[in-house]
Amino acid sequence: MTETAVRDALRAQRIEVPSWAYGNSGTRFKVFSQPGVPRTPEEKIADAAQVHAFTGVAPIVSLHIPWDRVDDFAKLGSYAAEQGVRIGTINTNVFQDDDYRLGSVTNPDPRIRRKALGHLLECVDIMDATGSADLKLWFSDGTNYPGQDDIRARQDRLAEALAATYERLGDDQRMLLEYKLFEPAFYMTDVPDWGTAYAHCLKLGEKAQVVIDTGHHAPGTNIEFIVAFLLREGKLGAFDFNSRFYADDDLMVGAADPFQLFRIMYEIVRADALRPDSGVNFMLDQCHNIEPKIPAQIRSVMNVQEATAKALLVDAEALAAAQTAGDVLGANGVLMDAYDTDVRPLLREVRADLGLDPEPMAAYARSGYAQRIAAERVGGQQAGWGA
Ligand code: AOS
Ligand code: ZN
Ligand code: ZN
Fold first, then answer.
1. pLDDT, tens digit (0-9, with 9 covering 90-100), for 304-361
2. What is the CATH code of the structural domain delimited by 12-376?
3. Which of 35, 218, 236, 338 has the lowest CB atom count within 10 Å?
4. Which tens digits make up the pLDDT trace of 10-63?
5. What is the pTM of this model?
6. Atom of ligand 1 minimally distant from the CA of 215
């Protein structure tokens, strides 16, 4: 790839940020509140707009319903536009009501299954109002004990709800099915892995695609293989990027394992799936429990940019030649040369080309925004988990 093509790709890159990253969050042990946290969906969008203002590549905000419920979603969309961003994916929430103790769409009780499906369909109505293209489905459904419920019947119930939701989608709308190995269910999860998600999506049709949340696998899983496979099948709809040391830690992407992020981005580049019109949506799904939230999002976006820049710098011709020649060490060396490149000067130039400060973290810190919201927003509510 020429240097111009690398720069063009980096300028055109798009990363979607989650509204819930700006509110207070925590673990089951403690939620630490921070000064200036948003009190409303509008304030979450305003904070997200800061991330875009300083990075230039994050103009899309994911909403989570009901955490971000407002009376007029079209108006919220206009507000987002005024802030310089737009509303992206609508994330469903069928995991927070007492009713969902035994599951949502796979619950043995048909009344609760109907309630859960009603929420999914309502989220498509919201997509119509916001102009969103993607509906994200993550189900906490599963069981804690062997024998607790019938694994196979739960798959039937899941398939039924997915089919009804799929039917409701408009021509330009997609549903993105996210899998997760465990948590909150500890014995069996109804959508535990990419194979299960893929099989359901395949049956549903083209508008159903798989989401890879990078924190949702068993330790040691080769995530880039899943990326390569799903891309080859045209079934990779989106990422939830974050990083983890142990389980679903939801830490900043690229913090735990920047090399893994590079390997993932290399498969993206290899499949020409970086382009915003490729059908792959690059979202962050993170919680900043102890660190300041807006800078943590800026840092995360920068981490994705750095991994992407390195992936774009892989010498494809040299790599193919080494692979064809069976030159194991040569091929590995080509990949590592790209990974070992310091791409920060290149990204500083890309930002300058976009008319931005080359150092987003420092520029945000200087802007005074953090001090302003801390003074203006008194009585911030916990947003996201537990809201
Ligand atoms: C849950 O573990 C999943 O990662 C979800 O994508 C997401 O975190 C949830 O919808 C709440 O933010
Ligand atoms: Zn996720
Ligand atoms: Zn998760």
1. 999 999 999 999 999 999 999 999 999 999 999 999 999 999 999 999 999 999 999 9
2. 3.20.20.150
3. 218
4. 999 999 999 999 999 999 999 999 999 999 999 999 999 999 999 999 999 999
5. 0.97
6. 4
Q: Is the CB of 190 under 6 A from ligand 1?
A: no
> Rounded to an integer, what distance in angstroms lies between the CA atom of residue 16 and that of residue 89?
9
213 lines ligand 1 (CB under 6 A): yes
Q: Locate 203 and state its tokens.
A: 């049956």
Ligand 1 touching residue 248 (CB < 6 A) = yes
Q: How far is the CA of 178 from the centre of ligand 1 (A)?
A: 9
Looking at ligand 1, which residue's alpha carbon is closest to its atom 7? 285
Residue-range domain boundaries for the chain:
12-376
